[in-house]
């Protein structure tokens, strides 16, 4: 595993030290996580259901209070702050928003962090343009921008995801892939420092998944946000990330630098021997963790 820097510096986006989360009721979702994420890095968490991926994503976003340990983010407005009491207040807002499928959960906390979830959660009563502009509208007073400026920024984000022609359509008039594009545009419209993606493409078929994966890489090349992707899909993690953390039962059991990482979408990557080899390495990491756990349980 990478050595953790002593303190958060200009090139580091997040550092977690012994980050532990035990939920009320006693479930230990994260067990002494040590992790450092570089600014502009594309990181993926893979692991079985319930291993703590989403919890770690929320810790990184500053939305989940720790039971013990520290998580520091380099967000200029919170530089060097520790993930303590302040987050307890934010968490309840986030949970309320997330459970209701509120599209701007992250923006309630900070324009510097955006989420993309599996469900695009667009507001059904308004069109793509207004859905995408919503985070800007909510932060308008803070940003002191005119309605015209906000509209232009929203239109630019819509153009980036190639949805310009659907800007005046309502969510029920969009395909699944178009809804996800709108959701990505809404996440990026605030130019976030962090883009956190929780199984964003899991509900889509392979073709759409690949299309959106390419879109995501193109957007990253353009904006260089720090990105953390949660996925069950090893192939997707390899295609989209520079580093893969394999999680099991609240721990990061292995961390692998992706030798195939490229920000340029590579159509034939999946057909190469190198891909098969690295895929095998990541799935071995998952299987080894599962078997060492079951051995421990039976001894
Ligand atoms: N609010 C909560 N209260 C109590 N336990 C929780 C809460 N949220 C998650 N957990 C538990 O914490 C553990 C980790 O959950 P988490 O959602 O982080 O896992 P995950 O790896 O993202 O799972 P999945 O892939 O199924 O989404 C699980 O055992 C889960 O049941």
From TrEMBL:
SMART domains: AAA. The keyword ATP-binding applies. Residues 14-274 form the ABC transporter domain. It holds the Pfam family ABC_tran. Keywords: ATP-binding, Nucleotide-binding, Transport. Residues 71-80 have a biased composition (Polar residues). PROSITE patterns: ABC_TRANSPORTER_1 (PS00211), ABC_TRANSPORTER_2 (PS50893). Residues 81-105 have a biased composition (Basic and acidic residues). Residues 71-105 are annotated as: Disordered. GO terms for molecular function: ATP binding; ATP hydrolysis activity. PANTHER family: ABC TRANSPORTER ATP-BINDING PROTEIN, TAURINE IMPORT ATP-BINDING PROTEIN-RELATED. This is Sulfate/thiosulfate transporter subunit. It comes from Rhodopirellula europaea 6C.
